[in-house]
Amino acid sequence: MPLTDLANPSRFLAVVDRLLPWLAAATLLAFAFGIREAYLAPDDYQQGATVKIMFIHVPAAWLGTLAWVLMSIAALGTLVWRHPLADVAAKAAAPIGAAFTLMCLVTGSLWGRPMWGTYWVWDARLTSVLVLFLMYLGVIALWRTIDDPSRAARVVAVLTLVGAINIPIIKFSVEWWNTLHQSASVLRLGGSTIDPTILMPLMVMLVAFTLLFLTLHLAAMRNEIVRRRLRSMLLMQADAAAGA
Amino acid sequence: MTMDLGPHAGFIVGAYVAAIAIVAGLIIWVMLDRRQLARAVDELEGKGIMRRSQRGREEIP
User: Fold this and answer.
1) Which of A60, A139, A172, B41 supports an S-S bond with A103, CB 3.0-4.6 Å?
2) Which residue of A has its CA nearest to B24?
3) Contact A222/B34, CB-based, under 8 Å?
4) CA A26, CA A208: separation in Å to the nearest integer?
5) Rg of chain A's alpha carbons, rounded to an integer?
6) What is the mean pLDDT of chain A?
């Protein structure tokens, strides 16, 4: 089946129905392996056992920003190509991105207290991630405010693209400003600075969390398509009642 | 097999509990949403209300 066929919501639903059980199983397997690796990982020579928070904090941060990147691509799909599934993908990604950003903030705060001596500091990295979380809440609120999904999609798409400016700010904040948050140690030129015994479980957890995101996103997209079908059925019911 | 999480065990356990709660919340939200939507669609279909594409399909012999 050509990839363009997925633009048809009915075909997309059929593919998702077949794909989801496999994705859910792969997610469970990846988590089982990742949690085992995280459990067996040695303590860090400076941070001790608190390094284990990294195995959930870093994937949460990765998915919090990835969801906004996906929403930005979907926003282009809505505004430029008018792809029928673009705004469905964007709307489904927003609550999931918000949840992972919240996870990033909470786990980071719980990691910061023993390591930095404080739960929170208004440095550039932490503040820009908090701004990302607030932007997610704004986008979710906007989706709920405007009744017509296609009109809401255009407004949200513009806001999403404006908000995309925050993504490079989050990424490079630790290089552009003097922050309490450490600089990049996983994705950086010259390779990771993390010891392989800790990097390996982190990579497995990154894969597991990404699979979880994909599973939840596809399931939420399926729900959104059904919600739109339900909306058109309700409109038809209202039309029929008005005509009677 | 027990794990020694050192003096900051509370923070580590707290972070994992928060992560599990957030993931569980997401899974429950997606599943409940699906169930509610399916129920609402079934109810309308039971009243004979169908989308135009469904009606078209039923008219084809």
Assistant:
1) A60
2) A99
3) yes
4) 8
5) 20
6) 91
The gap from C-alpha A112 to its chain's centroid, in whole angstroms, comes to 22
Is residue A27 pLDDT above 90, yes or no? Answer: yes
Tokens, residue A139: 């986008």
Number of independent structural domains in chain B: 1
Instruction: Look up the domain containing B39 and give its range.
Output: 26-61
Q: Residue A86 corresponds to which tokens in the numbers above?
A: 């673009």
Distance of alpha carbon A189 from the chain centroid: 24
Chain A CB contacts of B41 below 8 Å = 226, 229-230, 233
Mark yes or no for CB contact B34/A226 under 8 Å. yes
Q: Of A60, A107, A219, which has the smallest distance from its Cβ to B30's Cβ?
A: A219
Mind telling me how many Å the CA of A190 is from chain B's nearest CA?
A: 30
Yes or no: say if A90 and A78 are a contact pair by the CB < 8 Å rule. Answer: yes
A48-74 average pLDDT score: 96
Query: Where is A150: in which H helix or E strand?
Result: helix A149-163
pLDDT band at A184 (very low <50, low <70, confident <90, very high): confident
d(CA A192, CA A44): 15
Most confident of A7-11, A43-47, A107-111, A189-193: A107-111
Q: Which of A95-99, A131-135, A192-196 has the lowest mean pLDDT?
A: A192-196
Is B5 buried (19+), middle (13-18) or exposed (0-12) by CB count in 10 A? middle
Residue A141 has pLDDT above 80, yes or no: yes
Would you say B37 and A227 are in contact if contact means Cβ atoms under 8 Å apart?
yes
Asked if residue B40 belongs to a domain, the reply is yes
Say yes or no for a CB contact (<8 Å) between B22 and A103.
yes
B59 pLDDT higher than 60: no
Q: Would the pTM count as exceeding 0.95?
A: no
ipTM value for the complex: 0.90
